[in-house]
Amino acid sequence: MSAGTGPRLESRALAKGLELIAGLSLAKTPLSLSNLSAMIGLGKPSTLRLLSTLVATGFVAKDAAGNYEATRRLIEPAAGNWLTALIDAARVEMETLNADLAETVSLAALFEDHIRVVFRLESPRHIRLSNYLNRILPPYASSLGKAITAYQPPEKLQSLLQVYGIYRTTEKSITEPVQIREDMARAGTWFLVRVCEETVIGGCWFGAPIPVPGEPVRAALSVSLPTSRLTEALENTIPTLLVRSVRRVARKLDPRRAKGLP
User: How far is the C-alpha of 251 from the C-alpha of 247, rounded, in Å?
Assistant: First the structure.
């Protein structure tokens, strides 16, 4: 597996197409072109081209009102139920972090072969690090991706890397397989991941896994902000608040098994 200068256009189109199917899989009602365009962060013409392909291949259907729904779902009902429980458990903690720090707070979950943003609260500031719902995350470069991938068995880690691919997006991106595994090993012992400028110049992310004893890590929370606002005080404050938050989320998800968490 070698690093490239960036993902090929086909890979980006595939990733966006998967985001569309995944988002429609979770939707309880058909969604409009405007909704879907905002969901995946693409303009309407590009989103419409992807939707036309998905309709033609039978993955998505278009109704008489011009809205779209999934005909082949990436997320089974059981997974959807767990996802709803996860978001419900995390929502209050995310709202508190967002209010206390005034920065973007995101929640990601592990699916069969990828890691995806499932809920987020944007910073109220004009200059911020945005995130978007259903974004598929690089398992080796994002704080959420690392916080989940670092706790997976070797075969799962390898699968996540192979499905997403490895691309250099900034000079600080870690793309050598040996270095990625060393980085994952460190992340798996620290419980908190700090990623600065590995995916976006001028951006910094803090991520932490949501731990449920006896269960594999399936989700993580992150706080993201521009490096221009990252003070020494925040370097200490954000990790403390984030770790407390993920432990509280774990207790809500499984009070019995998470009882022993500090």
Answer: 6
